[in-house]
Amino acid sequence: MRIVATDCGSTTTKAILIEEKDGVFRQTFRGEAPTTVEEPFADVTLGVANSVTELQELSGYKLIADDGTIIRRKSPADADGCDLYISTSSAGGGLQMMVAGVVREMTAESAKRAALGAGAIVMDTIASNDRRKPHEQIQRIRELRPDMVLVSGGTDGGDTKKVIEIAELIAPARPRPRFGGEYKLPLIFAGNKEARQTIERVFSGEGFALSVVDNLRPTLERENLGPARERIHDVFLEHVMAHAPGYDKLMTWANAPIMPTPGAVGDILQTIAKGRGINVVGVDIGGATTDMFSVFGGVFNRTVSANLGMSYSISNVCAEAGMDSVLRWVHLDMDERELRNRVKNKMIRPTTIPQTLEALVFEQAVSREALRLAYIQHKSFATTLKGVQQQRTVGDAFSQKEAGGSLVDNMALDLMVASGGVLSHAPRMEQTALMMIDAFEPEGFTEIAKDSIFMMPHLGVLASVNPRAAMEVFEKDCLVVLGWCIAPRGEVRAGRPAFEFSLRHANEVVAQGQLIGGEMRLVRFGHGEVGMLEVRPERGLDLGAGPGKPVTREVRGGAVGIVLDARGRPLKLPTSAVERRACVEKWLKALEVYE
Predict the structure, then answer these.
(1) DSSP letters of 123-173?
(2) Which of 92, 182, 349, 585 sits between 20 and 30 A of 270, alpha carbons compared?
(3) Full-model pTM
(4) CA 391 to chain centre
(5) What is the pLDDT of residues 438-483, one digit of tens each?
(6) pLDDT for 323-360, tens place per residue?
(7) Of 45, 7, 107, 69, which Cα lies nearest the Cα of 386?
(8) 184: nearest Cα among 157, 216, 217, 149
């Protein structure tokens, strides 16, 4: 079997070829070309054809016909063509949505979760309690030019007054679709079923194409995002993509619905989490935005930090984090004024890459803060349902958990997946690993991996057609295992013992020792090797079994190895600049980050 998959990004269209060899699916060739959704071409299929032409030249198979279409094989014996063509897209700014709900912290937040999970960028959230006056809300709705609107509100059988008020606020404002023209703005209603007839009457005018699906929040205790997410995907194809330049033609080529790129990434991470029975955090850090994904206890969440990125938004990162926070990760003496000029140059020349060690160190320091801030935003959004009444016992008086608490638990985190230029293309794997560890501060035993060539979108849409092929390629070609981070939760005193470790491979001890507070150590453990790691923390430190209790876990080798981190959690750096630089330099040398 031969599969061609493309991802139409805002600047680049990436194509991969997947082939079944000896009963196993492998990614064999990769090609890319500039995306052609904008003028003067205004036809996305030209960029697709160009990227697949590169696959054709590399593989030797004829994949593109003379008329520019993708060749399909009539039988497995045919030398040319492919059996399956699939695609994702974020070209033209991806899917942009406005969401609305009655209460910002409840139904409006559920609507935002549904939109983000479907791969959308949420432009704004309108709610009755969002502290804006009605005329300010109407003005904002008129300013936005979304691809579609999602309206929720009320539990089934409850009061309909508030959700109808939200609808009567949106309808007269007459928001216009992004692409303009004569087509109606798609609007999905996923609220109280008792209000449906009134909602249909409110939006019966010529400006809206109304769809009604099951309530996002049928009861306060239950969230039902599936029907709304599925309808968002359908509407994305039927209304949005059909009006984008060349997408109507591309849809006729594809064997499966075209998916928004972030939605596809979320799908493959959910597939992996479910298949392995693990908790996963994934990140895609780009030039303008940072997408964060998590699956904890089977619950999927995605957030978009629209102001945190490494080129267009790099100035926002430095402003939000503060230059002092950025420079705490730097072990070299740098002039702050020169760095500010460097930041501005990166904004106006976003495709430039570091040419010196100093520039690389600074860029990776900025990335730590961008990732850290995006993770904080994600944890505050990926929460249990708010507004839920909980029956509590006497024992719960000692528990800190409550409705609206974050689902993200660093101790329960099993796998971190890195993606995006600054992470995927770092000169050394050790740099990627340390950026992830410093930014996310994983606890206990956590595996670290990266997406080799940003293949996750392709595999996400492939999972909907051929799950086995998607899983095999993800495990063998997409995911580059860097290694493991072993870090105790709790405050570690500098210079005092933190934990002892012993690594066994093939029934032999290959590494053992003791870590002192504030120390980091790297144990090289090659890719494919499997060992048993025993750690024995000091009293008060927790590595997953409870304070002071030993843990033994199976670990797999990787491109970096096993990173033993005795800096404590939460991570605290010395306040003195001289001591801080010395500490950072010691950690960098221990992990061979720049050597």
Answers:
(1) EEEEETTSS--HHHHHHHHHH---SEEEE--S-TTS--HHHHHHHHHHHHH
(2) 92
(3) 0.87
(4) 34
(5) 999 999 999 999 998 889 999 999 999 999 999 999 989 999 999 9
(6) 999 999 999 988 888 888 889 988 888 878 899 999 99
(7) 107
(8) 149
